[in-house]
Each structure stands twice: as structure tokens, then as C-alpha cells.
Amino acid sequence: MMNLPLNVDFTGKVVVVTGAGGVLCGEMAKAFAQAGAKVAALDLNEDAVKKLADECKAEGYVCEGYKANVLELEALEAVHAQVLKDLGPCDILINGAGGNNPRATTDNEYQHEAKEGQKTFFDLEPNGVDFVFKLNFQGTLLPTQVFAKDMVDKQHGCILNISSMNAYIPLTKIPAYSGSKAAISNFTQWLATHFAGSGIRCNAIAPGFLVSNQNRKLLFNEDGTPTPRTAKILAGTPMNRFVESEELLGGVFFLCDDKAASAITGVVLPIDAGFAAYSGV
Ligand code: NAD
Prior knowledge:
GO terms for molecular function: fructuronate reductase activity. By secondary structure, the chain is α/β, with parallel strands linked by helices. The chain is built from eight helices and seven strands.
């Protein structure tokens, strides 16, 4: 059982979470289930969402896992039909699937520091850049096309996208990821406007820097001391620390709660220990 940050009640709400096989959205899916929602956990990684669903069921919560590629419209429509049968029409959609790719990442921060043999800006692969833009942008647009239909029918619903710190100001090395997350912040405003008359709110969270198993080695040396990149991150973060994944849940619950956030649509909420607010000076 998780220690939930807000006492909100999502009883009976059908919450569809894409990328629920991953770290952040798996935790969100579990938290919604614990708060009474009927959760549809979608991911390319079927084993991960089936495991998540089993864990939730073992605690007495309602959660079903579905294999779904957020880039395949027909497959998403088939999953939608199954979710309708199993749980009912979607009330809340969390567009969590997303990420970066090494083919769209430079080895060096600055061209003038590039060394022989490193992947520079000039070596970025067009298909790697396409992959990242497609995953983050289309991977948010397509599930929204499929699941927001339920919300239009009910004239009620909520969409939550996942933006990032690099949507505000790009981070070095990852131009495609930064650009695609900027597109997500922009698209959040577009959706908010487009669906406002249909009773649907659309917002996003922009998580700050989190330590995960994938990036731990980049952030900390074996003896636990921070790497140079970590020192830069912390120097740019007024609260001088990383964000814990469970610290995202308060913002997620708040933005998805119809009472608490009834007049809030089109915002991107940074949950970042102050990173986006600080100029560095
Ligand atoms: P993660 O890699 O743990 O999870 C992402 C999940 O998406 C994985 O389970 C993966 O299988 C799934 N996925 C990938 N491609 C898919 C596809 N085509 N169809 C369906 N599922 C697919 O990542 P995470 O750290 O939990 O990140 C979740 C979201 O938060 C992403 O949008 C990410 O960009 C964003 N984000 C993460 C951080 C961070 O520090 N971890 C910071 C800001 C934003």
C-alpha cells in the first residue's frame, strides 16, 4: 500500500494509463487504483503491465493490463474496445509512454569539445530523431484520439500529458527529446482549447530530475559522490536535491480531480524542486 499524498476519491472512474509498464506511470497507475479507480494499464511491455495488474489485484484494487503500442492506431482501437468491455468508458487518460533514444543523442555537450570518434550533432541519425518525435508526440496524440471519444460522448473527462524540464529550455545532448517534449507542452494547450467546450480538461506535469535505475550510473560515482552532470543539476535546482517519483503523485491527483482543478486546463505543472524557475544566477 502506498502513502497517498491527497485524500481524493476516484471511485468508479476508469483511468487509462499508457507507459504503465514503466517506473513513473506504473506508480501513477497503482496510486489511482488505490484511490478507487478502475485502471487500464497499457504498455508495449505486456509482462510489466500484467505484473502490475496482478499486484494491484492482490491488494484488492481494480487494474487490468493490456499490451498496446501507442503508435498503432488500429491496435489502440482494439484495446479500447476491450477496455470498454472490461472496465467501461475512459474518464481519465494519462499519456505516459515516452522517452529518448541513443540515436538522437550526442556524446558531447558542446561541439567545440567533441573528440575523435564521438557521436556529434553531425552524426545524429534521421530515423533516430524521427523515432523520438514520433514516440513522444504521436504517442500522445493517437491514444488521445482513441480514448477521448469516450469523454466527448459523456461531455466529461480529463487528459494528463507528461512534459519535461527540457520543454522549457533544452538540455544538452538530447535535441529531439527536448523538442518533442516542448511539442507536448504546446499540444497540451491545443487540446485544452479544442476540448474545453466538450467538458474535457487537459493538463500536463513536467517532472524535474529523478534518480532511476537507468540513470543512476550517470548521476553518481561508485562511491556515491555526484558526477559532474549531477553537480550541474543540483547547482541548477534551488532546493538542491532530486525529485522523488512519489512526489509527482500530488500534482497528478490534483490536476485529475474534477473538484480541486475544475477550472484548470492547459497548464503544465513543473514538479521540479525549483529547476525551471532558476536562471542559474
Ligand atoms: P520508463 O522508460 O520507465 O517508462 C516508459 C514506458 O513506456 C516503458 O514501460 C515502455 O515500455 C513504454 N513504451 C515505450 N514505447 C512505447 C510504445 N510505443 N507504446 C507503448 N508503450 C511504450 O520511463 P519513465 O521514466 O517512467 O517515464 C515516463 C514518462 O515520463 C515519459 O514520457 C518520460 O519521457 C517522462 N519523463 C521522465 C522523466 C524521468 O526523469 N524519468 C522526467 C521527465 C519526463
